[in-house]
Amino acid sequence: MTIRIFTVALLAGLAAGLVVSAMQHFTTTPIILHAEQYESGSAGGGHASLNLDARGLGGAKLFLAHGAAEHAQDGAEPWAPEDGIERTLYTVLANVLTGMGFALVLTAVMFMRGRPVDGRQGVVWGLAGFAIVSLAPSLGLPPEVPGSVAAELNARQIWWAFCAVSTAAGLALMFLGNKSWMPAIGVLALLVPHIVGAPHPDEMGGAVPPELAAHFVAASLVTAAVFWAFLGWITGTLAKRFQLIAD
Question: What is the pTM of this model?
Fold first, then answer.
């Protein structure tokens, strides 16, 4: 059974990682490349129109967790793959590994649930993953383009993890709980991270025009939703194909 679980997760993660890498070519990649021009100061003043030349998949990133890249405090440039094929390959690899990791979690949860699933039911599981990992945290920490001003990285990561865990617990209590009081506690769990509040910088702003940043938030969330829906569908389909859970 363990072999089946890993087989389903690896195949589903591979497929979802490749699909989202291709989708990013038309969604987040052009925005990231354009934002990097503002970050480096090469875009000039004013609000230039969006350059849709994505140069392959270079610069594509899977913003399932939120936060722009941190820069070294001593002024040294952090390592990054070279633009072109190297950056593309690293991006696709990161997307595939991310997909496999999430698929493994999704497959394990489906198995522990103990009820047969198919592609349609898998989509529901996938959208729950989207709500936990992307949608709920984005209410406090929306996806950020390069050059955005952000709070300290560790604080953002801690709040993101807190929000994801709390959202997962809330959804589980609301939809999987068998006691009458559980939905009410579930709603409270959904609200707690946002009552506490996400960390934010003292001053807002950055080199990137707000229109571009807003476009990136929308594109990132839509891309993440497609990723999770497809991941859930392919995971449920493969779970049924490999008879992961007996009828």
Answer: 0.82
